[in-house]
Amino acid sequence: MSKIFIGVGHGGGDPGAVGNGLKEKDVNLSIALHLRDELKRHGVTVGISRTADEDDPTSEEVKECNAFAPDYAVDIHTNAGGGNGFEVYHTLSGGKGKTLAQNIEAEVAGIGQKSRGLKTRANSAGKDYFGFIRQTKCPAVILECAFIDS
Please, which of 37, 94, 122, 134 could form a disulfide with 98 given CB 3.0 to 4.6 Å? Predict the structure, then answer.
């Protein structure tokens, strides 16, 4: 069976996006805990960056992920900016990270949520912009699960 690491975006003093009386850090944690439980139910070995509201900087998430040595990593976030739907970021180089992103997109779209697509983002050096994707030692994706403000 696979080993999956779940990063939980924001936390503690960093609420992330805020909208409709919700804080991203709380929404992310709820989604991540449900994902952890569902993966475990299917026999997957799961590591998770946090299970309560605590400061959780990306550098610590990456360190925990790499120490866990998973087959794949997923970082949970919630978008803002008045949009609709979900999107999945994967590495510029494609590979297993892109395949993971495609599989997640197919499943989420299959339950009726609008997909904003698979995305990549480069930094000024032409490398992956997001530290979670760039610095993990396994294929990793970032899920923007919904828009907190719409």
Answer: 94
- Contact criterion met (CB below 8 Å) for 12 and 54: yes
Q: For the whole prediction, is pTM greater than 0.85?
A: yes
CB atoms within 10 A of CB 129: 15
At 34, is the secondary structure helix, strand, or coil?
A: helix
Let me know: does 143 contact 74? Beta carbons within 8 Å.
yes
Task: Report the amino acid identity of residue 19.
Answer: G
pLDDT by position in tens, the chain (length 150): 699 999 999 999 999 999 999 999 999 999 999 999 999 999 999 999 999 999 989 999 999 999 999 999 999 999 999 999 999 999 999 999 999 999 999 999 999 999 999 999 999 999 999 999 999 999 999 999 999 999
Closest by Cα among 125, 104, 123 to 115: 104
Helix (H) or strand (E) holding 104, with range, is: helix 95-110
Which residues in 28-44 are b (16+ Cβ under 10 Å) and which e? bbebbbebbeebeeeeb
CA distance 71 to 73: 7
Q: Which residues are catalytic?
A: 144
